Each structure stands twice: as structure tokens, then as C-alpha cells.
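REQUEST FORM: STRUCTURE PREDICTION
Request ID: SP-0412
Submitted by: Lab K.M.
Chain count: 1
Length (residues): 364
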Amino acid sequence: MDHELLKIVWWLLIGVMLISFMLAEGLDVGARVLLPWLSGRSGESLQQVPVAPRHINLLWLLALGCTLALVWPALGGLACWMTGLMGLLILLRRTAWQIARPRQAWRALAIGLLPAALLGGMLGNLFLGLPFSRCGQAGLQLQGTVAGLFSPFALLATVVSVAMVCQFGAAWVMQRGGRSLYQPASRAAGAAGVVFLASFIVAAIWLAASARGYSVWAMERPATLCGPGAWVVLANNPGWLANFQAWPAASLAPVLALSGTLMSLIACTRVRPGMALLGSGLTVSATLCSVGIALFPFILPSSVQLSASMTLWSVASDERTLGTLLIFASVLLPMLLVCTLGASLKGSHLLIESRPFGLGFKAS
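STATUS: Completed
RESULT:
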């Protein structure tokens, strides 16, 4: 397998890992964020629901962070920082409900949704480009302020991410939570689905109407101190739609994202939790596929220096490293997928007890 093909294979594998992490995150959100909130509101004294193991999403996050640092070493520091922050937020929400009192339910719910919000805001900023430049061997030089990352479009992307994860999590509670939790979980899944449809459509129109996308041209140019690459980056991709126009079949991804949500909404009204779970899972997968297709081959676009934008072709490791990592991934990733699937079908149990001063948790 030659170097260029290895780069594409690893781009696909990283996409699979990101989708797997978001699905595992959705299970965790359903079982450890939405479930206690729904159970507390309905006044249940005891609920028992199968959930995935406590650290399955952390395992996917760790695998994703290590892979990014090894496959795309130029992202090493940024990848470690972002995955570390998300891991800290996941661990934080594990204790949020243990110390929550009834009046603090919304605060605990907000803390539990922070990882999905962070990922959504990060993906939204990729479409706008990040304010960094590169000059010689100095590495990345960030410009601007942190407040600049909270643009209206980034906040809209955050809403898209949180809504799709909540929809999947609520569908999981519908499937495995029993009759007493079906109605509140169905209402939560329906509300999240409606929010996702509205925010996803608005985001797509926003990109098509006003966003400036980039494209890569394979043109030779003289090496300079601050532009050593042989690739020319041009801002001539309106709305990041060029790949969808070049590959018509790729348009199925956003269509499937909307179709999955509609399937989930219909299933909520017809008492079909399995169909709701399948549709919401399709929404998560197709939405992330849409993002990857739109940005390809860009990994980290720059909004202040186009030539500094990182692409799949410019930041990947050497051929030997990618080949060796692929051998390990061919063994470890199937094992992790089987572990996740088996845990989702079999599951441990989370017991949620209503107490006078809050909610108590026990895992069995």
C-alpha cells in the first residue's frame, strides 16, 4: 500500500473512531445524564437500566487522541489538549449527579452535555478556519483571542452536536428504560430531534450562503520562509460544497442525517424505540460524515494564512509509521468495536434512587 493510499485509509479510520466515540458518548449521555434527570422528574423511587461500561467512551477518546498525535504529528499538542479537556469534562459529569440536589438538576444536565458542546464548537470553527499561522520551523502561532472562537456559527454547530447526542441518548433510554421512562424519554427525543432538524438546516443554509471554503491545487511554487509547501490553497470553495458537487453520491450523507432524525421522530409517535435508536444513530454517523466530506482534504484550515492550512497530504506521518500503525489498528479497533457492541447489548446496570437530598447512584 503506497503512502497516498495510507493517508486516505487513516483519514477514514479516524472518521470511524470519531463516529464510534460520539455514539458511545450518546449512550453515556442517555444513561448518566438524561436518565437521572428524567427519572427524578417522574418521581420514580428506583429505576434499573442497562448501560455501557463506565469508561467505554473514555477508551474511544483515548484511542482517538493517540491516533491523531501519531498519524498527524503536526496536531500532536492540539490533539492531546483537546482530548484531555474532553476527558476531564466526561469525568466531571460522572460526579455531577452524585452531588446534585433536585434544584441543581439543570446545572448537572448542562455539565453532562459539555463534551458534546465542545466537539460541536470545535467542528464549527473548522468551517470558519482557525486563527493561526506558520512561519519556518516556528510551528503554529495562534492569533486573536479565545472569545473569537465563540462566533454565531460555532454556537450553532454546538446546538447541532448537543441535539443529536441528546436524541440518541433519549432513544437509548426509550429502548432500555422500561415503560415508566418511555414517555418522558420519548418527549425528550422528540424535542431534541426537532432542534436538530432546525439547527442542521440553518447551518447548511448558512454555509451555502456566506461561508468561504478552501480548495487545494497541486501547483508547484518556489519555497519561501513562511510558505514551504508545494500546494496552493485557494479560497474558492463556496460554502464548502465543492466535494458534494464533485462526488454526487456524497450528498447522501446530509440526506441520511435528516432522514435518520425523521425516522426517529416518527418512531417516537408510534412506540417503536428500536427504530428511534436506529434513526438517531444514523443521524450521528451521517452528520459527522457530512462534516468530513465537506472539509476533505483539510484537517485544520487557517483563517489568517491560507498557506498555513493543514491538509491530509501535508501533515501525515511517513509511510513506514502509517503502515505499522495500520497493523496495530487492524487488531485493536475490531476488539474495541466488539467490546462496545457487546457492552451495549448486554450492559451493566445503573440504579438510580430518589433520596431526600438528591440522587444516589449504584452500579451493578
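NOTES: The chain is about 65% helix and 10% strand.
Reviewed by: T.R.
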